[in-house]
Write a structure and sequence with these properties.
Strand order of the largest sheet: 2-1-11-10-12-13-14-15
Helix content: 25-40%
Largest sheet: 8 strands, mixed
Shape: globular
Number of helices: 22
Number of strands: 25
Structural class: alpha/beta
Distance between the termini: 54 Å
Length: 634
């Protein structure tokens, strides 16, 4: 690249700046067939330029919608970089997208081009793709030379034969930044909608650059930081993480679920971005391994963790670092602090021992991990405390695809534990009541916000756009929360219907519930699983039809209602029948099957669990059956 100073306006400007400023540094480390490969910022620039040139020659240009169907790989970022440079709009999705959903997105988004990760994906969707008339070309990242005369399918090997870069090529590539502005849409991400139809979230350069410019300060990011990446690149949380890492010249190691633990020890990252599910997995593995090796050591470990957690809690109480929702009198606060100080003094010797022993656990994370970011779902309190107790600084973050994604995060400057921290810089956030009134600290209402990160709207969905914004322009998140007296945010639930699993997957319950109620013995169903490993369902049965169904399978249907709903054989048979419907061949994803179900012995009532228009009050149902749900998905 030439030494000209580039503007830091759009996402493309940022990528160009980083490739110039950090050209000799390693940007990605990844594996291909057990061979480790390293890529410099200079090579990333060259690869993106060559691919952009090839795309341009095949009519990909400003405003072109390009579906990118791929999982994590270096080629994903190169493709993204190339599309951004051309002003094209990427429409990303994971390789596990069902054919029916893929067809809807391709048609709804008006995609002209499709990039597939492998030839196997082409074969899996071949029949559907042949029926699409708007696709001008299909490109395959990993594949041999596949192009034939008169067809429109190309592998990257086909279009990247000429890798020569001239000075003119470089100048033309960089000059493409002048055709871009902050309000241009750079991606269209489809997320589940409340009606069962995926909604297309339009994100602009302004939206993502708000995150790129704001988030590094929150986590005190520097070019010396190394990331180990495991989340899907197409997910906005991971995508934003990779962009902010590139903006500072960091190195990103692409890992996988299978190799994550080993990669932490090998590459010794200073930063990781994960979802709660991953922390749950580590928590279970560490405790189970200790229990298996030596139950006595396991008990000691748990005791040390409890000592560390208790000490941390008391220390925060003494330093006013716990959430406060109502003003406390001076005398009360003084007594609390004095009591905490006495207990801290008594616990100090044990805490020193605990911290020393628990530091050994940090070696499992590579020994250099200074911070972990958890997003894509609320981090359960027990995990938050456990991670903190073993000595890892955790940034519990809150965001949405519609905000690209940052809304709030417990930054390095925020010491109020048990919260999500304050809203990110220049974000106007409020808690609103049912009538739209702004609520004071401590009161629960809908989280609403304004800011540069907020998307301009859903693609071709004016009905949802009207619902998504208030009359004065605030985005309605659909999440319930409250603020502390010092302005930190705490999420208390979800007023909208979307369920986010611990793995970060977004699920539309109405679509699955609709499918379940097709069964004659199901009168109603409520999907549950927010922040859990898997899904469960509360089923309101039609007892007459249920007995008929059970008697057709085995003789067990003559029991009383209360005994029938608790019969394990009946529950197993009903769950099997439900999961038969929720099969991938019917357009459902593997994580959308039922982990467990519970049969209710009475119907939902209007005015209680149902509104006057017979809509389910999810938060009421989840509160009423919280103990049942906890056992269902423990």
């Amino acid at each position: 690249m030439p030494d000209a100073v580039l503007n830091k306006g759009t996402l493309f400007d940022m990528l160009l700046n980083s490739c110039q400023e950090y050209r000799e540094r390693t940007v990605f480390i990844y594996r291909v067939d057990n061979t480790e490969l390293e890529v410099s910022y200079a090579k990333l620039f060259d690869d993106a330029l060559i691919l952009a040139k090839a795309f341009k020659s095949r009519k990909v240009g400003h405003g072109s919608k390009v579906m990118l169907l791929s999982d994590n790989r270096y080629g994903w970022m190169v493709t993204d970089f190339a599309l951004v440079s051309l002003g094209a709009i990427s429409v990303p999705r994971g390789s596990d997208t069902p054919t029916r959903e893929l067809e809807f997105i391709l048609q709804h988004a008006d995609c002209e081009f499709l990039v597939l990760e492998t030839e196997q994906l082409l074969k899996a969707h071949e029949k559907m793709l042949k029926g699409l008339k708007n696709l001008k070309s299909i490109f395959i990242i990993e594949g041999g030379k596949t192009h034939r005369w008169f067809d429109h399918i190309y592998s990257y090997n086909d279009i990247l034969k000429n890798r020569k870069i001239t000075a003119t090529d470089t100048e033309n590539f960089i000059a493409q930044r002048y055709a871009l502005n902050l309000d241009d849409v750079f991606t269209l991400i489809y997320t589940s909608g409340t009606t069962g139809v995926p909604k297309g979230v339009l994100l602009t350069h302004r939206n993502i650059m708000y995150n790129v410019n704001t988030l590094p300060e929150i986590i005190d990011l520097s070019g010396d930081d190394r990331w180990v990446s495991i989340l899907p690149s197409w997910h906005i949380f991971e995508r934003a993480v990779e962009y902010i890492a590139l903006s500072k010249g960091c190195c990103i190691v692409y890992s996988s679920v299978k190799t994550f633990a080993a990669d932490l020890e090998k590459y010794q990252p200073t930063m990781v971005a994960t979802v709660p599910r991953l922390w749950e997995s580590m928590y279970s593995k560490i405790n189970q391994k200790l229990e298996k090796e030596d139950p006595r050591k396991a008990r000691i470990f748990k005791f040390l963790v409890s000592i560390s957690a208790r000490y941390n809690y008391l220390r925060r109480m003494f330093h006013n670092q716990l959430p406060v929702y109502h003003r406390v009198s001076f005398l009360c606060r003084t007594w609390q602090k004095f009591s905490a100080l006495v207990k801290l003094i008594l616990l100090a010797p044990l805490n020193l021992l605990a911290k020393k022993k628990l530091s050994l656990v940090q070696e499992k994370f590579g020994g250099r991990l200074r911070m972990a970011i958890s997003g894509g779902g609320s981090l359960p309190a027990y995990l938050d405390e456990w991670i903190d107790a073993i000595g890892i600084r955790i940034v519990n973050a809150y965001g949405m695809t519609e905000c690209a994604p940052a809304i709030a995060g417990r930054s390095v400057s925020c010491d109020v534990f048990g919260t999500l921290g304050p809203p990110t810089k220049n974000t106007d956030l409020r808690i609103a009541g049912d009538d739209g009134e702004v609520l004071p600290a401590g009161e629960v209402g809908e989280i609403q916000l304004k800011g540069e990160q907020v998307f301009p709207g859903y693609y071709k969905n004016e009905e949802e756009n009207i619902k998504a914004f208030t009359a004065d322009g605030f985005f309605k998140t659909g999440d319930l929360g409250k603020l502390t007296v010092t302005g930190e945010l705490v999420i208390t639930g979800r007023s909208k219907e979307i369920i986010v699993l611990a793995s970060g997957e977004n699920i539309d319950p109405s679509r699955i519930e609709s499918e379940i109620t097709k069964l004659p013995f199901v009168s109603d169903a409520v999907l549950v699983g927010q922040d859990k490993k898997g899904l469960g369902a509360l089923i309101v049965p039609d007892f007459e039809q249920l007995r008929k169904f059970i008697n057709d399978k085995f003789e067990s249907g003559d029991q009383e209602d209360d005994k029938l709903v608790s019969d394990k054989q009946v529950l197993s048979r009903v769950k099997t029948e439900i999961n038969r419907l929720l099969h991938p061949k019917h357009g459902f994803k593997p994580f959308e099957k039922m982990q467990n179900i519970h049969l209710l012995d009475k119907e939902f009532k209007m005015g209680e669990e149902l509104t006057n228009t017979m809509k389910k009050k999810r938060h009421v149902i989840e509160t009423k059956y919280r103990e049942v749900i906890a056992k269902l998905l423990k």
